[in-house]
Amino acid sequence: MTKSWQDKLKQWRKQHGDEYARVLLDAPVETTMLKFVPYPGVILLMGERGMGKSVEAHAIAETLHRAQKAPAVLHLPNIPVKTRRNLQALLPEWMKIVERREQWPKGGVIIYDEAAQSAHARRTQSSGAIELDNLIAISRQRRQTIIFISHHSRKLDIGIVHEVDQIHWKQPTYAHQLFEREEIADFSMRAFDFFQDLRGGRPWRECSERLKRLVKSTTIALDMSDFRFVTFKNKLPAYWSEELSCLFQDLSSQESLKKEVVKD
Ligand SMILES: Nc1ncnc2c1ncn2[C@@H]1O[C@H](COP(=O)(O)OP(=O)(O)O)[C@@H](O)[C@H]1O
Ligand SMILES: [Mg+2]
After folding, report:
1. Distance from the CA of 10 to the center of ligand 1, in angstroms?
2. Domains (range + CATH), the chain
3. 158 compared with 236, residue with greater pLDDT
């Protein structure tokens, strides 16, 4: 059986204290989304609300559609029919909204936004989580690239965190990074520092609009196969609109409302 990257990481940390430090201290290598993103593969995309996670996921789908003719799906179970229709009308024809995992196309890009909603850590034992685990395992055979989007890893099913090929960060908050799973806490702190540097230490509210756009368009990412940090930029997808952005925001606020109810 091949070792999980956690085991590899632990062993590597023990043997290569200096190298481990270098991974964290070296400046990330600049690359492009097209060169870096795995196809097929599994990406975990994290960062604070409003910092460009959905935009990046859509930019990845658009890039792989252009380069590889990959179809894409937005996995959105249980959304109101009207919202679904409005949303679909704003998306390109190669991107479909689906509700069931059997609808994920071969060779497709799957955007699993706000992954914590259904891949919630507290439900690790549920059949849903096990199913998701299996899906990740077969995604490689089906040549899929799955993008799981979440605020931070603590809320995620451990199965997902352990299976990812890459972790991408849009700007996280300090609080979020404190809640990360132990395995990736150091890396998350690195990502936090990276964005802090990019802002020149300025608080967010004091950043110019231009600087905010730069921050939102920048990603720092860790390749789990060789523990190497890279950075790249992404533009808004050609079909992106304020209307689309608002619909996504509405969806996540509805989801968080539901979550509040469940908590009580
Ligand atoms: N790469 C980018 N370039 C310019 N503006 C961006 C970029 N990424 C995000 N934005 C702006 O930020 C808004 C929020 O981005 P979004 O991806 O919806 O955030 P999140 O999914 O993290 O909550 C977008 O609607 C857009 O106006
Ligand atoms: Mg979003």
Report:
1. 35
2. 20-258 (3.40.50.300)
3. 236
